[in-house]
Amino acid sequence: MNQAGRSFARREPNFLEDASEPVSSLFAFEFSRLRDHPDPDSVLPSLLVAIPVMGKDLLLLLFLFSLLAAAAAAAAVDARANKSSSLEGLFWATGKDESELLAMMESKEEPSAGEDEIDGFAGGFSSLDGMLQWAIGHSDPEKLKEKAMDVQRLSEDELKKRRLEIKELMEKLKMPSDAELMKIAIADLNNSSITLEDRQRALNELLFLVEPIDNANDLDKLGGLVMVIRELDNTETHIRTTSAWILGKASQNNALVQNQILTHGALTKLMKMVNSSFTEEAVKALYAISALIRNNEIGQRLFYSEEGYIMLQDIMGNSSIDIRLRKKAAFLVADLADYQLQYADNSELHFLGNRFFLKAVVDLILTPDLDLQEKALLAVRSLLQLTSTDASDLRDFCSLDRILESMREHLEKLMLEEDLRDYVKEIESLRREVAIIFQSKLDKQVAWVPT
């Protein structure tokens, strides 16, 4: 791994130890000007330049508070779109346990009320101005004036030299941008001599960085897509899994990246990975496929040409397969059917109305998992609205009417469990909607007599 990328966040303590007394006096001089000046904003820029080399105690305190503020802010805006993820790069660079980071991405929760409030010691300072005001209120005016007097005795050349030193230190302390972090990670992936651990670390970094749409859009420009897609052929399972995960995140609701990935030929590789004996690899590959072809006609046509519907049918019809795969398959079926209803001529996709395909979907309603039942109902509801779907096949071959009635009886019993009641009511409402659409389609088919 590029050492600059791994160690930049650990440099600050060394710089603090190296700060010279004359240079820190320069900060004191600027600080005293801010304290006594009638227009503090005019002094603030020069004070900011001096911050990195102030006296150790105050600098350490301010620096720690700034990190706390940044961390709290990053946590508060984690779910917001199009925001920079530089702080996440800091986590990677400081050696945070990667398993913890990946777990965080797997199970993001909605922030509770008040979590966005960052005030004082509760979560750091809301701004650098607030941090400086706190420092001013807790400083010793006499010591500041004493150091300021030292600076006033400096010649113009000496003062310029001190300011140049401060500027150089500021540059070294500057946090890399997301684009810079992405370049570092991509360079590591392109380095055949790095260790497997460093290769995994680079992928983990990209996994965080591609979440904002602007970063995802830059991935191909920086040569990252080619590198990540190449890793789908890696002999290590974890490398392939993370690579698929990156492609899924980058292409989520992003037509530009979807088409770029499709152009690079990744879909066929991902479909092969779904058959992996390693469950996590298969799950992430199917996740990537779903994100890649969602609302993308080119991607869906390629998916169908590779017999993707048979892949989905096999997943849904195999009760021994991990339930996460079956849920993702059912969700993708509903998504594909909805797209046909909204944007395409659904009559040409007859395989979505294939009775064996329909049975694989309907049978999921019999599973004991409520979440899978709900996803199966959503898929059936969408399929029922396609002209290619024969309601009589759903009744005679798939036994949808009997399965829906059996489900109603089961949900009635679950209603007695207080902790499940609200969710069960939602599923029962969906079940009734499917039953109504199903019966309506049956009635229309019976009423229609060919001439």
TrEMBL record:
One of its GO terms (cellular component) is endoplasmic reticulum. The chain crosses the membrane at residues 58-77. Residues 128-219 form the Nucleotide exchange factor Fes1 domain. Keywords: Membrane, Transmembrane, Transmembrane helix. InterPro entries: ARM-like, ARM-type_fold, Hsp70_NEF-Inhibitors, Nucleotide_exch_fac_Fes1. One of its GO terms (molecular function) is adenyl-nucleotide exchange factor activity. Pfam families: Fes1 (PF08609). This is Nucleotide exchange factor Fes1. It comes from Musa troglodytarum (fe'i banana).
